[in-house]
Every structure is written in structure tokens, then in C-alpha cells.
Amino acid sequence: MILHKIYEKRLLRSVKSGAIPEHIAIIMDGNRRFARKKGLEPHEGHFFGSKKAEEVLDWCWELGVKMLTLYAFSTENFKRSEKERRNIFRLLEQELRRLLKDRRTYERELRVRVVGKKEYLPKNLRETIKEVEETTKNHRKHYLNIAVAYGGRQEIIDAVKAILMKVKRGEVKPDEIDEKMLEEHLYGEGKYSKVDLIIRTGGEQRLSNFLPWQAANSVAYFCDVYWPEFRKIDLLRAIRAWQYRRSHEVV
Known about the structure:
CATH topology: Undecaprenyl pyrophosphate synthetase
Largest sheet: 6 strands, parallel
Strand content: 5-15%
Shape: globular
CATH superfamily: Decaprenyl diphosphate synthase-like
CATH class: Alpha Beta
């Protein structure tokens, strides 16, 4: 344990001496497998996953990360059991309520957004989302995006549809459409259109339709640990890998 702490401190000093990614996105995979390993019901793993997300938020803000996007629930996850879906939505509502009451949300000027097909979500969750987004809409120092009922291809399709509606109304000419315009019509805002580092836990080495536009030039870091077991060392190693890739880019 002592050696672990010494290593963590050295790694932290090393990472903080270099550039810090502005936008980190995380696929929080392995909650159910963690639960099975512990002899729990698969859906109980999401509780431990939500607590880990709270920890990781603190780590990121302390390091100076400006934006964090967490993949909480994909459109494909609607195929899961009703019990599991209900549990995930309940945990998400609790987490949003916690953010509303947490003084750090206001001290850090944290803007919270839920990105995805919010109309697919239960009414009470949609109302909570609306409240937290409205309450934090003027915050501009830090950004937290929670991807729920999210599909990357659908996000691009929705952006194209929104632009085409503007073309139809005469607000935009076809030859004015470019990358910048499409990015302005994605679900999030600010640095959301470009991800520096994507981390996936759980051992899978794929991005699973997560932020396909934003991740075009990002560094992907795959971590074998299940999400509830994700450590600060794992985050620091991911950032160090990003720093290494950044410093060795061909100009």
C-alpha cells in the first residue's frame, strides 16, 4: 500500500508537469461483471459505478480537465431488463440531485448537460435533467456531459436533420454547410465537439458508437479493470499515454 501511494504521487507529479487534456470521455464499462465477481446481482454493480463516477469527477477537476463526458446508457441498453433500466435511471436521478445540492457544482461553475435522446427517458428523470441543466446553464468553467440514451450515429443524423431544417427555412445556404456548422448542432457545446482522450474500462477494445465525430483524432486508452475498480493511477496512466502520443505526433 505504501509503495502504491509513493508510485501514485510520483506519477501525479509527472503528469501535472505536462499538458492536461481539455476534454476526456469515459466509457464506464464493467459494472455488471464487477457485481457478478462480488456475488451481487448484476444491476447492483451500477451503484458502485455511480460512486466511482463521483470520485473520478473530483480527480479530473483537480487535474485541470475542463470537460468530462461519461457514457452512462446507450440506446442499445434499452434492450436490458426493465429492472436494470429502472435502477440505472434511479441512480442517474440521484446523481443529478446530488450535483444540484453540492456546493462544489457552484464553486467550480460546473455546467451539467445530458446528451442523447432525452425524450426516450422516464418523465421524472426528464424533469430532473431539465432542472439541473437550467440551474447550471450559465456556468462556464467546467463542463460535465452525461451520455444517456445516446448513440453516436444518431447524434450525427440529428445534427444533419437540424441543419436541413434551416436550409428548408432559408436560414442556411447549402454551400455554407461545413464541419464547424455540423459541430454546432451536436448535442453538447464548447469543447464537446473535440475529444482529446477516450478511456474505456472493462477490457473491451472498441468505442461502441461513442462520440464517433468527436473522437476522430483522439487518443483511445483501454483499461482492463472494471469501472467500479478504476483507480486514480489508471486515470493518470491514461493521461500520461495521451501526453506521450501528443509529444510524438508527426507535424
